[in-house]
């Protein structure tokens, strides 16, 4: 307790139950110089990559729980692949491509944003264009985010290497803690 007062931090218990196994963590929350919790809203955020899959929805529910406990902001990030190439420029205008990418992002974010809106929970949406691993990590770094909470398809290391695993890539590239949430396979495949 004395250490916590000297270092101006608050220790919060955080329990996560995944696949029937309970994991216990202690999270450290910094206090500002005036003694109040929190700090800069940009540095007090959780990045949640959303691709429209059930796995990203599971990740959002974990982020929601953590954000309530730590009074942090949720930032939903959707990354669209760069499709504006020489060939697409010949047939489509940049505004058509942007409109199409925004439409895809809106569809991917719909289930999560509808859920958060019904719960009256504030959040921020960000759509980025590029390679998902780099763009997710870049968004977290630019914001100084505390955490990235990302869903996993659960392909395993071999199939993940062959087909690409965004969660594994983010885990290795991110400069902040990453929580990979593996959802219920039965619900995800339904």
Describe it for me?
This protein is an alpha/beta fold. It folds into two domains: 1-38; 40-189, HUPs (Rossmann fold, 3-Layer(aba) Sandwich), CATH 3.40.50. Helices cover 45% and strands 26% of the residues. It contains eight helices and seven strands. The chain has helices at 2-7, 54-70, 86-91, 94-118, 132-143, 157-163, 166-173, 185-189, and strands spanning 9-18, 21-30, 45-49, 73-80, 124-129, 147-152, 178-182. It has a five-stranded parallel β-sheet with strand order 5-4-3-6-7, sandwiched between helices. A hairpin with a 2-residue loop joins strand 1 (9-18) and strand 2 (21-30). Helix 5 (132-143) packs parallel to helix 7. The chain is globular, with a radius of gyration of 18 Å. The chain starts with a helix and ends with a helix. Mean pLDDT is 77; it is low at 1-8, 24-41 and 159-163.
Any descriptors?
disordered N terminus, Rossmann fold, 7 strands, 8 helices, 2 domains, 26% strand, two-stranded antiparallel sheet, alpha/beta, 190 residues, Universal stress protein, five-stranded parallel sheet
